[in-house]
Amino acid sequence: MTTIRTEGTSFWASTMRSFAATVRRDGFGWLALVVLILMILGPLYSVVLWAFAERWQYPSLIPTEFGLRFWEQTFARADIAKALPFSIFLSVTVTLLSAVICLPAAYAFARIKFRGRQLLLLSFLATNAFPRFGLYISIAVIFFRLNLVGTVQGVILIQLINTLLLMIWIPTAAFQGVDRALEEAGLDVGASRFRVFTRITLPMVMPALSAALLLTFVNTFYEAQGALLIGLPRVVTMPVLMYSLINSQLVTQYGAIVSLVLWAPSLILLIVAQRLLRGGYLTAGFGV
Amino acid sequence: MSTLDLVQLSKRFSGSVNAVQSVDMNVHDGEFMCILGPSGCGKSTLLRMIAGFEMPTSGDITIDGDSVAALPANRRPTAMVFQKYTLWPHMKVFDNIAFGLQLRHLSKADIARKVQEALELVSLAGYEDRYPAQLSGGQQQRVALARALVLEPKILLLDEPFSSLDAILRVRLREELRRIQRRLQITAIFVTHDQEEALTLADRIAVMNAGRIEQIDAPAQIYASPRTLFVADFIGAMNLLSGTVTNGRLAVGGLHLDVPMGAPGGAVTVAIRPEDLAVLPAAHPEAWSAVIEQISDLGHYRRAILEVGAGSSAFTMKMYLPKSFNPAEGSTLEVYPRRYLVYGGAGAAPFECVRPLPSEALTV
Asked: What domains are defined for chain A?
């Protein structure tokens, strides 16, 4: 009896010791990787399987039949055929409008010393200082009176508000990062102010601006709360549709397929962001 | 081949700071002019007005006789090398230098040739494809110089271009700049707070203080005859002593000096260069007894701090010890001021006094 317990203890102790040794030897990185893979891929695993499952019955660990039948059915749905192009249209429109409004403002914040500059810059945090949903509800009340609820304009407006912080703060910091002396050096060799902006200032802030634009696009594409409250019932975006597909559809595959489709923008963002950071002068200084 | 004239040039910033006050300056063709002064004296503002980055409050700037005061920076025939590194980080060295040429619509072949020449001038041929971040600080400032010179400006402006470099590199680039400026015979204006830099580079130095020009002269002249007390104190080592002139005798802390006829009366300041103090082997009616407080061996010469006079009227002075003279700290010696300047009322030119040197005197 005693012997067995001793054996058991020593077995566990040696296992723990060898695991601890592995972690020590290969560093913390491996452990972190494993945890990350489980946390990220775990839920995705089931979504991906569901998206390609024709049939999946209870005791089986993997679908009993694979196929693309539900993809055809999903894209044949009238609501999806309408919501997907609309979501893309909305994200592009909001990103462009936000750029037109915010980028000149960011340049002004960075370059012009005016009264109340700091306060105004801080005020863009205000939309993040309160619970979003509460804010949306009070905005919805105002929009309702203005007949903006359920309209495309209303959804565009609510999304624009969401983009302000990102599209002003990131570009402001970027413009501030361009030393004035670099612009003066441009004037000094004979360039006009416009050309200094397009040939010197803009290329230097481009990585940060692209990041802000991409984040704005993706955030708008994925935003559901505001779109739900202001848009329904007539204006439906993809994330809003996904909610209803997941919550109220008997066919699990619809939700899974839409989830996969909604992956695309963030995947593209990742690839583009990597391209931006690779090559060019940003990495030249690091000897890459 | 150009001249620059500043006429009563003033700049007043909105905070009611008079950055530059009524500056008159004529820079000759091919001249290397240094504007020297402590930080905050307005020298950079003056340069930035010439470049067009600041608009003067009043006064005029002319280049070859034509006023440029109303022209924006991008239409002035000047080119500047800045204090900070201002190469555009997203452009390669070639594009940095070529940018100004491209704006002037030169042909590709001409641009390539001129960029090549400019890079050779600053000894950086072969660096065309580097990004600024891949260059050292000294190389970056050379490229900045090439970028300015490639446009063949009438006036080359330099705003403390070497101040962020280490001492050895600073001296090397200074010599290189002088060589290039001589070779191109370009009119250059160089702003610095480093008097050694100014003294070695300049044909003439303009010493600035509190927005005003105190003196414009050749380096030797500035050193030998500083026109104001500020210049006397700012340039080189100087002993400044306060004294009083009565009946042709100058009293300094209980001791006396001769002053010739015509010297200012009343309260004055006497300026004596350390090297103008000679040592006498024995007591002498015109020499001052002093105690050596401290001797610093600086290699090529020894500097002594002296306590001159006795009691409450004693004062300290610096001097350089003659080669053949090896006193110990704490010993006494007889010093003889052989040349000194007497500054009277505010703004008046100094009165120079040179005394005959006794034959037995030891000098540096």
From this structure: 2-67 (no CATH), 74-286 (1.10.3720.10)
Residue indicated by tokens 């082997």: B281
pLDDT value of residue A9 = 59
Using a CB cutoff of 8 Å and minimum separation of 24, what contacts does A25-28 make? none
Q: Taking residues A247-262, what's their average pLDDT? A: 79
Residue B288 burial by CB count (10 A; 0-12/13-18/19+): exposed, middle or buried?
buried
Confidence of residue B68 (pLDDT cuts 50, 70, 90): very high
The pTM score is 0.79
Q: Cα(B14)–Cα(B285) distance, rounded to whole angstroms? A: 58
**CB within 8 A of B323, min separation 6: which ones?**
B364
Residues of A in contact with B148 (CB under 8 A): 188-189
Which one of B49, B74, B92, B156 would you mutate to disrupt binding with A, by most A Cβ within 10 Å of its Cβ? Answer: B74
**Count of CB atoms situated within 10 Å of the CB of B63:** 21
**Does A158 reach chain B within 8 Å, measured CB to CB?**
no
| Residue found by looking up tokens 């700012």 in the block | B234
- What are the beta bridge partners of residue B292? B306
User: Which DSSP letter does residue B25 get?
Assistant: E
Strand, helix or coil at A237? coil
Map tokens 């329904």 to a residue: A232
ipTM given for this complex: 0.84
Which residue from B178, B201, B339 is spatially nearest to B270, judged by alpha carbons?
A: B339
Residues in chain A within 8 Å Cβ distance of B106: none
Chain segment B248-293, per-residue pLDDT in tens: 788 888 788 887 777 777 888 999 999 999 999 888 888 899 999 9
Give the Cα-Cα-Cα angle A84, A87, A91 (nearest 5 degrees): 145
CB B336 within 8 A of CB B361: yes
**From A194, which residue of chain B is nearest by alpha-carbon distance?**
B74
Distance, in Å, from the CA atom of A182 to the CA atom of A201, rounded to the nearest integer, reads 8
Tell me which residue in B74, B75, B134 faces A285 most closely, judged by beta carbons: B134
Q: Identity (one letter) of the amino acid at A41?
A: L
Q: What is the pLDDT of residues B219-230, one digit of tens each?
A: 999 999 999 999
More confident call, A271 vs B176: B176
